[in-house]
Amino acid sequence: MFLKGLQDKFKVKSGLKFLQEEMEKAPVALDREKGITRIGCIVDVDNFHNAEVFYELIDEFSLRPNAIKIIGYKREYDKNSPYAIQIFSDKDLGWKGVIENGYVLEFLGREYDMIINYYEEDNLMMKLLSVKTSARLKVGFGTLDHKINDLILNTPFKDFKVFKSELKKYLKVLKEL
Residue 125 has what pLDDT? Predict the structure, then answer.
């Protein structure tokens, strides 16, 4: 048990080092056309329980039915319990910032036009996933490190309708919609 705790501590330290190195690098520009056709959402389901509301963006932005991919983070979860969305947790942290979860690998295997980082906490796992995901535009809240997101919305975390309307407004200003 002691060795497991020590190993977890070193994994966190290794993940933090990887995150710091990735955030210091210049962002890689994706060669995708303007416009939003694929959206990825990283959601803190411990603090925002209704992650399925992100599917409303399909109608809001006139997207294809499979254009949105949602992955949720929970500190601890039972792999046998059914969840409406795919979940990852702290247990999935590997060495050098690798997240060892099949859902995460599937999420990272796609390119997105926009990533929505829907979390406020300074959490290593969600930040690692945000940094590793390739997207042309990253949207999130002002409480996070400003190097992670390109567009920062200062809306109430629990009020998704306000977030959605502000996001749509700024995407029109940026000529993405």
Answer: 93
